[in-house]
Write a structure and sequence with these properties.
Blueprint lengths: L2 H10 L14 E4 L11 E7 L5 E7 L4 E6 L9 H39 L1 E2 L5 H6 L7 E3 L2 E7 L5 E7 L5 E3 L10 E3 L6 E5 L2 H11 L3 E3 L6 H11 L4 E5 L4 H14 L2 E3 L12
Helix pairs in contact: 5-6
């Protein structure tokens, strides 16, 4: 039934082996072979159009892949009344999905707040911070895990990222991350740096003194850049790319979208490359 979708995924660079192919309109995630333990960067949402055709939205957040797919022409031409009924059904399904997503996000926000209230200030001797050579900027600690708050442009807590001593990263289930970030270094005046991970952002802030935001993934660079541009329209946004093809492509796209600039930081000891 979904052979075409599977081929489209492969063509986009996604391994569909473990993809949950269920046509119920719900977003479903799975772990790609290259994902670190505990992360699920691949996603798919499949729609049954009730006329013998299917549509899907799929991608990989880490690799900034975002694609749509349609199975083909309907088995029969719909009448005007059938098209009207179908449009109503799709609108109702979309409204239901959006309401369900709001409910999931609201529940996650409460769990995030409760969890953060139980966390203590992060130890400067936490193995991850020591290994990366950075300080704890607004980061808490719960047990052995660092807890990084994730907030939207209005400062509302939406989710949490957990980083264990070995560097494994997980997010709070159901929390909103798209367009949300973690801030380091206070309110920007002229320049604001944007990076993917916490350690990179902390290093940049400590090296340059510029405020920096953590987007948490390459695929979230553009949504966060848009949110920051709306919040600080007069500030120059500099996207700091991870040193890989996906990171560079995402940084360039984000910079072009908000009229900012991008660079690839060089963290070698003798580097004079600063934003």
């Amino acid at each position: 039934m979904f052979e075409g979708l599977i081929e489209a995924m492969r063509a986009a660079g996604i391994d569909p082996a473990n993809a949950p192919l269920i046509a119920d309109g719900r977003m479903r995630r799975w772990r790609a072979p290259e994902d670190s333990p505990g992360t699920k960067n691949c996603f798919v949402r499949i729609y049954d159009n009730c006329d013998g055709t299917f549509g899907a939205h799929f991608g990989n957040w880490k690799q900034a892949i975002d694609e749509k797919w349609f199975s083909g022409k309907p088995h029969k031409e719909q009448t005007a009344e059938e098209k009207r009924q179908f449009a109503q059904k799709m609108a109702a399904a979309k409204a239901k999905q959006e309401e369900e997503q709001r409910r999931i996000h609201a529940a996650a926000e409460k769990r995030a707040s409760d969890t953060l209230s139980k966390a203590r200030s992060a130890s400067s001797l936490h193995p991850y911070l020591v290994r990366k050579g950075v300080k704890a900027h607004g980061v808490k600690q719960l047990g052995e895990s660092l807890v990084v708050p994730v907030r939207n442009g209005q400062g509302q807590l939406t989710s949490l990222q957990f980083i264990n001593p070995d560097g494994e990263k997980k997010f709070l289930s159901g929390g909103q991350c798209k367009g949300c970030y973690h801030s380091i270094g206070g309110k920007p005046e002229k320049v604001l740096l944007l990076a993917e991970g916490y350690a990179t952002a902390a290093t940049l802030n400590e090296a340059t003194g510029y405020p920096c935001a953590v987007a948490f993934s390459a695929g979230n660079l553009k949504p966060v850049a848009l949110a920051l541009k709306g919040k600080y329209p007069q500030v120059q946004i500099v996207i700091c790319a991870d040193a890989d093809p996906v990171g560079r492509a995402a940084a360039i796209d984000a910079a072009n979208t908000v009229g900012g600039t991008w660079l690839e930081p060089d963290f070698t000891e003798n580097s004079e490359d600063k934003p």
